[in-house]
Amino acid sequence: MAALSTKQLSQKLGAIAESWTKDPFRPNLQLQTFLKSLAAHPRLTPQAVEATRALRDNDMQKKYRLSQKMLRPASAPQHYERLVEGFEKSAQGIGRPWWKVFFGIW
What we know:
By secondary structure, the protein is an all-alpha fold.
C-alpha cells in the first residue's frame, strides 16, 4: 500500500468510511463523518488507512480470541449477554420497566 498516491489513499479511506456502521445512539456524531473528512487530509498515510480498515474488519478480535472464562466471569456469568441484549433493545427503543430497574431484575 506504500506506493499508492494520496488520491488513491483518499478513495480507499472514503470507501471504508462509506461501509462504516452508523451509531444509532449518537445520530449527530458519526465516526463515518470523521473518516470522510480525514480522507481529504493532504498528509494521509497508508498506515492510517490500514489501521482504519483493521478496525472496521475487527482484525484484533480475530487475532486475539477471548476465552469463555473471560466472556463468562464466575462472579457474573451472564453480564456480557445482558449488556449486548440491553444495547440491542435500547437501539430499538425498548426500555426496561421501572420495577425491573428498581429491584435490579434483568
